[in-house]
Design a protein that fits this description.
There is one protein chain. This protein is of the alpha+beta class and 165 residues long. The chain has one domain. Helix content is 35%, strand content 27%. Strands 1, 2, 3, 4, 5, 6, 7, 8 and 9 form a nine-stranded mixed beta sheet that branches. A hairpin with a 4-residue loop joins β5 and β6. α1 packs across α5. It is globular and about 40 Å long.
Length: 165
């Protein structure tokens, strides 16, 4: 199914933003968008060693990956995929995604029409969020409360429903 861009303000994190701001924005955006995201996927893989605050979540995600791999893959002894589908309505699974969000090589959240709302990549160096103006304000406030700089969450402009690969 083709991916389409959602209507809203497309945002990213300013170049040179401090690591705490990046982490707070990646996590906060997922929380702000939780009610609109129906499909959530994260890669249990990072460009860097997992930091201490993510280790427990990574272990739990690895257990889920092993438990969810197919019967044939288990029989053949194949490793599970690094990608894992999570349920954003499940508090535990959402919490795991939030924990690894700033560190994963890829995390994506889609709405019911497969419109990409939350996209974090390459350990927080490439991120976009599609937010309403209210959600953008909420995200900036969350970043500030976490000790980051809310103004480093930058609106790129309004997006209409253009198609994307």
């Amino acid at each position: 199914m083709p991916v389409t861009r959602a209507v809203g303000v497309r945002c990213t994190i300013a170049d040179g933003a401090a690591r705490p701001t990046v982490a707070a924005a990646c996590r906060g955006a997922l929380l702000v968008l939780r009610d609109r995201i129906v499909r959530l996927q994260v890669d249990v893989y990072s460009d860097e060693p997992w930091p201490p605050d993510a280790i427990e979540a990574v272990q739990a995600l690895d257990e889920l990956r092993l438990a969810r791999r197919g019967r044939l893959a288990r029989r053949l002894g194949r490793d599970p995929s690094i990608s894992l589908d999570l349920d954003p309505r499940d508090d535990h699974e959402l919490g795991l995604a939030v924990a690894v969000a700033p560190y994963t090589i890829c995390g994506s959240g889609f709405d019911e029409r497969w419109r990409l709302l939350w996209d974090v990549n390459d350990t927080g160096t490439s991120v976009t969020f599609t937010l309403s103006s209210h959600e953008l304000d909420d995200l900036r406030a969350r970043v500030e409360r976490s000790g980051g700089r809310g103004e480093d969450v930058v609106a790129l402009g309004s997006r209409s429903r253009g198609r994307s690969g």
